[in-house]
Amino acid sequence: MPHTAANSRNVPLTAESVPQIDISGFIDAAGVTAGLAAIAAEDSAGGSSDEARAKVLSYLREVIREARSRVEEAFREDRAGFDCARRLATIQDVVIGRIHDFALRHVFHSSNLSSGERMAVVAVGGYGRGTLAPGSDIDLLFLLPYKQTALGEQVVEYLLYLLWDLGFKVGHASRSIDECVKLSRADMTIRTSILERWLIVGDKTLFDELGQRFEKEVVEGTSEEFIAAKLAERSARHAKLGNTRYLVEPNVKEGKGGLRDLNTLFWIAKYHYRVTTPEALAELGVISKRELKLFQKAEDFLWAVRCHLHFATGKAEERLSFDLQPEIAERLGYNAHPGLKDVERFMKHYFLIAKDVGDLTRILCAALEEQHAKAAPGIGGIRNLVRSLRGRAKKIPGTIDFHIDNNRINVSSPTVFRDDPVNLIRVFRLAASNKLEYHPDTLKLIRRSLRLINAELRDDPDANSLFLDVLTDRTNPEFHLRRMNEAGVLGRFIPDFGKIVAMMQFNMYHHYTVDEHLLRTIGFVSQIERGELTADHPMSSELIGTVKDRRALYVALLLHDIAKGRPEDHSTAGAKIARKLCPRLGLDERETELVAWLVEDHLVMSMTAQQRDISDRKTILDFAERVRTLERLNLLMILTVCDIRAVGPGVWNGWKGQLLRTLYLETEPTLTGGFTRSTRAERLAASRRRLADRLAEWGEAEREAYLDLHYPNYFLTTPLDEQVRHAAFVREGGAGEPLATRVRTDAFQGITEIMVLAPDHPRLLSMLAGACAGAGANIVGAQVFTMSDGRALDVLMLNREFVQDADELRRGERICGYIGALLQGKDTRRRLISGQKAKRPPTAFSIRPRVSIDNALSNQFTVVEVEGLDRPGLLSDLTRAMADLNLDIRSAHISTYGEKVVDVFYVTDLLGTKITSESRTGRIASWLTHVFENPGSEPQTAGILSGERAYGLGRT
User: Fold this and answer.
1) Residue 889 sits in a domain of what CATH number?
2) Radius of gyration of the chain, Cα coordinates, nearest whole angstrom
3) Is residue 122 part of a domain?
């Protein structure tokens, strides 16, 4: 029997209660029956021979292929995800029902069954909801009156093997009604599976009896137990998948705000309220008509995305990865808008839907809690009465509109927001100042009152003052801003913030949506201020206690990316927004200009630290000119740390922290006229002393000789723990052999580190990069240190390839072998790379190469900056090209931001002078641009080197 319209939402107790789905345009059920009967008629054994089975298999395979093709075609036209899932489930019903009937009548010739041979084939789990994605598992329950019979085993075996041969993944169980009831009591997974059930074919009396006994013996009186189990299961699933609905590559089925959350929501409602449709929940008043539409809209959208994922990949793919997002956006009909790609508009819609799912869950939980609270005294007797009295409402000083309900802020009247719209902001201020959570009823009423947030409220001085208090709360501003955002208040009160709610940035660097990133930066600055991150960020933790413009810092953090998704540069556009918004919030003119500067230059410190040579005095002077005052330097330092930390897990590391601290300490005396907490000489001496203390077990002469190997910049820019590891490596590798290598893995950051100690020469970095390219390894960072004895200590950070450390270490050792072969002349880069299968860059991303050559950034060196799409072997190609162009790389600053690479090289010609000829810089830029687009190509092919010959320099 095909699914019904109501059953596609859930399962009614009787199959006749709703009309059937019309599937005539997708599969001819009567025709399938006739086709199978014809096969049986042509078979000498009446359908039971192996030849007949092969024909049945071939026939059904073609029927399913055509039916699914029609479903996909209709889906591409109407884009109705929920209908697509219903149609696929209905087709599955037809196939299973016809196989079952064919087996009984033609294979085993047993149309007349005894009472003991009765059986019902029941869809359970996801299939039991009447919905299937193209790659979904098929969960079947073979329901028996007592125990399995020989005929029943034969029918089940025939059906299952045929389904497996057709390519379906089938989960199955054969149980009596008694077994189903017993197991459902003990196992919550089985209980949930049977909760959503549908009779596909077979004995309806059995199916109805299961329903009646399940309701009476399992469901009745166990709502609290079931709800607690489902919510705990949901929390565990969220924790496993990142515990945020704003991951930029979400899991559509299992992720936070995905289909499983929507399923859990309805399982709870169905179990507790004994309803069979979401419409019934609206009739009961549990959800409003608007929220019912929200449920249906979310369900349809998520099913559309999931079905497209399965159709596009040809498998049960649930992760909406970067490579798939553009195709799904195209399938769903999204178009680009100024400042936003089509894929970014699609993903913003996705995250808004995920947020709606969270809202619906909170609304249902509020209704459940309210019903439970009313029932508690009567149900639990004196104990529950005492608990109810303890949790009774308490007053909040200074207001009669809100009260404390079990440590949560709740409204005292359903008209508190209508009576005074400022209460829509005041409620968050009261919750923050009293350290309260939010009652679900309060959040529900807030969401239903959002229309009250208008221009008048936005301009209200009290409302803006209250908002600023929430933003700068000294306890936990992130928590209250997050609740404000989830309720829809933040985006309406600050419309520019509303534009970036749920907005993703289509790149591999940012892990979260823009609004999630901004809220996380507030969380980090609050943790720093509370002294919780002193070990990770000692300098920021010290500086934050000295800043005078605390309000400006918090506002700048909230606004620094607020202009993302616009055609204009987001830093420049963000500064304009800050100049307009800050006076509204109550900031004076000086604070407003400070916030605008912080927003406009929020990337300057990280870019200078990571992409410039901070041992070059010109770098420090240029940066100091940009910053101008010590207060701005302090604020920018803290903002930069929070910004990097909030990008995603593993983005921050000790090396970046050390670079930022060094840049700060090098800039401080320039801004203070020489007055600083410590001079460069004092910091250098202290750094040498700290390393000497860590090397206390070395002999004094050996220790001093090692310290003298490194130039001052090494001590000032390298974290102490790394210095200690380098020292052990150099000590061990410096004995005897001219070349030493070592491999270390870091699973948390997802990288593998290779240290190389070798005689320094202009092509060293190129050869190291070539060895990595020969192994197909992608370099995401590099540190290059020259030592006073003519050797170089180079540290390469590679993307991790294997999950197991043992496998990754073996790969690292293989790369070290390549390095040795290249440096010793036993192999060539060309041969190594020719044996490596080329890896294509991510097809989802396209970045136009950019090369800039600047002689103003350094007094000694020409600075070559390249930017473009990263790929394995890129650094090798770039450094080899520079060597072929007779450039001597004095320092390299390798940075990878997801799929984008920004590499900066400080170079001279082979005579140690800057590259000043316009024609020569033009050839360098042309060739490096060519390298991005033509992996492994030779410069002679483009005639690039012909001009270099005129200099008489030849090749090194």
Assistant:
1) 3.30.70.260
2) 34
3) yes
Shared-domain flag, residues 182 and 258:
no
If asked whether residues 187 and 250 sit together in one domain, one would say: no
pTM for this prediction: 0.76
Is 376 found in the same domain as 322? yes
What is the CATH number for 93? Answer: 3.30.460.10
Confidence band of 932 (pLDDT split at 50, 70, 90): confident
82 is a domain residue: yes
Last residue of a domain, one of 640, 670, 700: 670
Instruction: Give 362 or 542, the one with higher predicted confidence.
Output: 542
Number of domains comprising the chain: 4
Q: Are residues 650 and 506 in the same domain?
A: yes
Can you read off the two tokens belonging to residue 586? 């109550």
User: Apex CA 346: angle with CA 343 and CA 350, to 5°?
Assistant: 135
Residues 647 and 510 grouped into a single domain: yes
47 shares its domain with 138: yes
| Helix (H) or strand (E) segment spanning residue 142 | strand 138-144
Question: Residue 115: how many CB atoms within 10 A of its CB?
Answer: 8
**Is there a domain that residue 79 lies in?**
yes
d(CA 884, CA 878): 10
pLDDT at 956: 25
Task: Determine the pLDDT at residue 70.
Answer: 94
Separation between Cα atoms, residue 352 and residue 451, nearest integer Å:
18
Strand pairing category for 887-897 and 740-746: unpaired
Supply the range of the domain harboring residue 516.
Answer: 494-670
Q: Which residue has the tokens 């999931």?
A: 306
Cα–Cα distance, 745 to 729 (Å, whole number): 15
Q: Does the structure show a pLDDT above 60 at 954?
A: no
CA dist 696 and 687 (Å) reads 14
On whether the CB atoms of residues 29 and 94 are closer than 8 A, the answer is yes
pLDDT digits over 730-749, tens only?
998 866 678 999 999 987 66
Residue 845, pLDDT score: 67
Residue 500: inside a domain: yes
**Paired tokens of 622:** 């240029």
- Rounded CA-CA distance 283/274 in Å is 13
Would you place residue 19 in the very low, low, confident or very high pLDDT band (cuts 50, 70, 90)?
very low
Task: Judge if 118 and 267 occupy the same domain.
Answer: no
Out of 220, 247, 278, a domain closes at: 220
**pLDDT score of 944 more than 70:** no
Percent helix, strand and coil across the chain, each to the nearest 5: 55, 10, 30
647 vs 586, residue with greater confidence: 586
Q: In this structure, what are the phi and psi dihedrals at residue 581, rounded to the nearest 5 degrees?
A: -85, -40
Let me know whether 508 and 370 are in one domain.
no
Q: What is the pLDDT of residue 836?
A: 57
Q: What angle do CA 7, 13, 17 make, to 5 degrees?
A: 65
What's the distance, CA 615 to chain centroid?
A: 36
**Spatial separation of the C-alpha atoms in residues 676 and 665, rounded to whole Å:** 8
Q: Give the residue from 839, 838, 847, 842 showing the smallest Cα distance to 866.
A: 847
Backbone angles phi, psi at 893, to 5 degrees: -125, 100
Q: Is the pLDDT of residue 952 over 70?
A: no
Per-residue model confidence (pLDDT) at position 186: 93
d(CA 799, CA 937): 24
Residue 921 Cα to chain centre, angstroms: 41
Helix/strand/coil for 732: helix
Highest mean pLDDT among 22-36, 419-433, 609-623, 867-881: 419-433
Q: What is the largest CA-CA distance in the chain?
A: 104
What single DSSP character describes residue 117?
A: G
The predicted model gives 336-363 an average pLDDT of 84
Q: Where are the beta strands (DSSP E) in 686-774?
A: 740-746, 751-759
Tokens of residue 196, six digits: 């959503």
User: Per the structure block, which two tokens stand in for 835?
Assistant: 């044996």
Query: What does the pLDDT look like over 376-432, one tens digit per residue?
Result: 433 344 444 344 444 556 899 889 999 998 889 999 999 999 999 999 999 999 999
Burial of 507 (0-12, 13-18, 19+ CB in 10 A): middle
